[in-house]
Structure formats: C-alpha cells, structure tokens
Amino acid sequence: MDRRKNHMSYFGIGPIYVTICSVLTVIGIKIAKYYPLTKGIIQNFNILFKVISVICIAIGLILWISSVLISKIDKNIKENKLVSTGVYAWVRNPIYSAFSFIFTGVLFWQNNIFLLILPLFFWVIMTILIKKEETILRSTFGQQYINYTKQVNRCIPWFPKK
User: Fold this and answer.
1) I want to staple 108 with a disulfide (CB 3.0 to 4.6 A). Which of 7, 34, 53, 143 is the partner?
2) Radius of gyration from C-alpha coordinates of the chain
C-alpha cells in the first residue's frame, strides 16, 4: 500500500474541534450568568467542583504533554507512522481528549450544574469529526489501524484491551 497517497493530515480535526469547544465554553459561561440559568449554581458543591475542575485540567495537560511532547506526534505524522505506544496505547486521540478535559475543567470551575451538559456535546462533536480522520487512517494503515481500534478507546483514556 502506498502510504504517500494516503498521508495523515498534520492538524487533523484539531483546529475545528478546539474552536467549536472554545466557542461553546465561552458562550455557556456567558449565558450561565443570566436567569434562569443562575439557578444551576450550587454553592454546596463549590469545593467539590473546584477539585474536579483542577483534576480535569491536570489530566488534560498531562494528555497533551504526553501526546505532543513525549510521543512526538508531529514527527510521526511527518513520517506517516501510526503511533500506538505511550499515551496512544491508552487513548487513540489524546490531544482531542486533552482539550475535552481542559474545557470540562473550566466548566466545572463555574460551579453551575447546567454547564455540565456541554461536555456531552464535546464528546458528540469529537466523535462526528473523528469519523473522517479514522477513514483516512484506515486507508493509510489498513489492518494495523483496525487492530489498534479494537484495543484502544477513541477518546476516553483507559487500559488497553488485550
């Protein structure tokens, strides 16, 4: 199979996904300050939400650093290599997952239960956008990628399946 014909995109869906999630997060935070959405602010869970926020943001940063800096994904994309080790053994799309965790952390920081619907939208949007990217990866790497998808979750970091 000629891998030059089917070369991975350097940025993939990243810029589109991050832009959409950024806009949704900012709009959500802005409109949550108006009645009736202010009813979603739950003071009793303020500390819990702040802790969850910090944990989500930390997980996001760890995923991003692991995928971009440690796994050197840019180098592997340039060389058209499928990365399935390191953080990529835990999640197929750690960069997109990283941003989902970071945006979710920002939403938890707002202490408004209504904003927590947005991470579901982040997941749906990511899943829809990733479908095109997965088609390219399947045609580029064939059975190697198909086997990889059977072992590793798309966007939720978890232990690899054996």
Assistant:
1) 53
2) 18
Burial of 62 (0-12, 13-18, 19+ CB in 10 A): middle
The model's pLDDT over 41-78, given as tens digits with 9 standing for 90+, comes to 888 889 999 999 999 999 999 999 999 989 888 888 88
User: What DSSP state is assigned to residue 38?
Assistant: G
pTM score of the predicted model? 0.87
Query: What whole-number distance in Å separates Cα of residue 16 and Cα of residue 11?
Result: 9
DSSP β-bridge partners for residue 112: 41
Whose tokens are 């592997």? That residue is 76
Residues β-bridged to residue 137:
none
Q: In a 3-state reduction of DSSP, which class is residue 9?
A: coil
pLDDT in tens, 125-152: 999 999 888 988 999 899 999 999 999 9
Q: Is 91 left (phi over 0), alpha (psi -120 to 50) or beta?
A: beta
Residues 47, 49, 55: CA angle, nearest 5 degrees: 105
> What DSSP string runs through 113-148?
GGGGGHHHHHHHHHHHHHHHHHHHHHHHHTHHHHHH
CB neighbourhood size of 134 (10 A): 16
CA distance 87 to 1: 27
Q: Please check whether residue 80 is in contact with residue 7, taking contact to mean a CB–CB distance below 8 angstroms.
A: yes
